[in-house]
Amino acid sequence: MIDPIVMKDTYFRDAHIMDPGNGVDETGNLYVKDGIIVDFGAGLGLPEGAEMIDCDGAVLCPGLVDMRVALGEPGYEYRETIASAAEAAAGGITTLAALPDSRPAIDDPALVRLLTARGEETGSLTILAYAALTRGCRGEELAELGLLREAGAVAFTDGCQAIASTRLMRLALTYARGFGAMVVVHPEEASLAEGGAATEGELATRLGLPGIPAVAEAIVIARDIRLARLTGGSVHFAHVSTAESLTLIRRAKDEGLAVTCDTAPPYFDLNETAIGDFRTYAKLSPPLRRESDRMAIAAGLVDGTIDAVASDHQPRDADDKRLPFALAAAGGSGLVTLLGITMAQVHNASLPLPRAIALLTSGPARLLGSDAGTLVRGATADLCLFAPEHAWKVVAGELPGKAQNTPFDGRALEGTVLGTWKAGRRVYTR
Ligand SMILES: [Zn+2]
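Above: inputs. Below: predicted complex with zinc ion.
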């Protein structure tokens, strides 16, 4: 899969070069030498000794930056390993931020360094480590935020759980602010969500499923926006999924608070009816919402309320899902469908292509304080080449990597990754 030795200089011919973070959107050629972007432009000729890749007008953009991924490691290797997650290259992803609620939790500086090093070992992926906000992600006492930050943690979060204690969350925002880091929140009020399997409403009732009221999300968002105002701290809401959440976040942004958010493809592409005949692959956390919420999230991509699209990749094996709906594990895999589902908003809705690419590259890179997600001259050549109109079909069981639990099984998509380069080295070829 990965050629470990050869490091060629590469000349990309006739590419649609796109780097929205720097306002680049032009047709031309791009030259990579020793893993670095040397130059690009319409008049750039073929340098001697460089290997030529004919792009035929395909889009050449920064390697995608996925800011929300649960890895199977450590603790859940049967679901996925870092080596199998490195198949993310097939989805055009070259940088990902890994959640810390593994077993053990990433609440120790040595584990932050280990996770980062494991990414480097893959040769195809930069892993940015989120560190646990509280010891063991148990929500009881704060972790050693200063030491974790020093070890390279990009931000703090308890992964798939909001901090229940308002007092502790206030403290967390205050300390994290001191270390120049944001707190990332899974916005869901835990006592309201407990035991729920779908969004509360007519559909859940008809299917006989225990419901989670949609306001479980807005309740946490409203609280944490108030705490951001009180502390001056920086809060980021993950996978927002309701119209009300976006209204609150939009208002906080207008006020100038350090409040940002991302969403994941299921929340702008699917609604609760995807559960259909108790399809457990559509059991997600947060649960899929009503159509009006889906439409609001899609609009939030366009109007800039949403800062990034992240896969919220949650690997599950077949046994986690081969259970009655109410008992099955929540979560979907998302690495290889991240680009294709986002492209569906370009093809079938009103999302402009440069905005779509920004949501997948410069947007998340900026939030994470990473220098990835750009094509500036002198930058590391992390690249994704994709054909926006080329069709493919999502088939669970045939996806690259270990995690096959996609909520998009059977879906026809347009937008195919043709190649991925990490620091100038080709790590994926279609
Ligand atoms: Zn979550």
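Residues 160, 186, 238-239, 285 surround zinc ion (CB under 6 Å).
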